[in-house]
Design goal:
The chain contains four helices and 27 strands. The protein is α/β, with parallel strands linked by helices and about 260 residues long. The protein folds into two domains: about 140 residues, UDP N-Acetylglucosamine Acyltransferase, domain 1, CATH 2.160.10; about 55 residues, Udp N-acetylglucosamine O-acyltransferase, Domain 2 (Up-down Bundle). The strands form four sheets. The protein has an eleven-stranded mixed sheet with strand order 1-4-7-10-13-16-19-22-25-26-27. Strands 3-6-9-12-15-18-21-24 form an eight-stranded parallel sheet, with no helix packed on it. It is elongated.
Amino acid sequence: MATIHPLASVDFGADLGEDVEVGPFAVIEPGAVLGEGCRVGPQAYITRWARLGKGVKVHKGAVVGSDPQDLKFGGEETTLEVGDRTTIREFATLNRGTAAHGRTEVGSDCLIMAYAHVAHDCIIGEHVILANAVNMGGHVEIADWAIIGGMVPIHQFVRIGPHAFVGGGWRVPSDVPPFVRAAGDPMTYKGLNVVGLQRRGFTREQIAPLHHTYKLLYRSGLNISQALERVKEEVEDTPEVKLILEFFETRGDRGIMK
């Protein structure tokens, strides 16, 4: 049974799971779906287009599932989907998708800190951290376990690979490859995200081929095509190295970080 504060506005057409709690002055529109154990803080706004998994926490003043800020948007029926146990902190804003993708996706076990903005058609993986006031353009893709520092603007259509770390305050105009640290203006490769990888249980044997791979890609003086061939010839063919090769070989609209 849901627990709803008497000062909240929850439409009878909203689908609330067991043990949902809704705070004062929160608004939940008809058609919204909240999974078991969700917590909605005071003054939060959950639109009819929001689909929240189990145990999602929405803090004070957050807006979840609002219309895209896209001039091409024509009012089509799209969604904002949030995975289990994700936390959305104060005054974050998460827009629903457009006809281009049909939905905006946020995975499970993510942390979206205060004032962050997730734009239309973005795809965010699992265990992702967006620090305070990260601002994303549309169609951004952020893979599992990536961490984005505070006050970072991310250009539309940018891809950020798994286990990447983007330093706070820097603009992200191009794709950030897997497993790296990125910072600077213009944004550049600052080394492997060794601390993050070790915290997640990567062994020395797993990390060593990544060092070799990025030495060839960024420190050898070779162009990307030449460096990729050298990686295939010289570096152990581990799952992590395959992931890097795939990222570079399927270049997106924004190009890859220099």
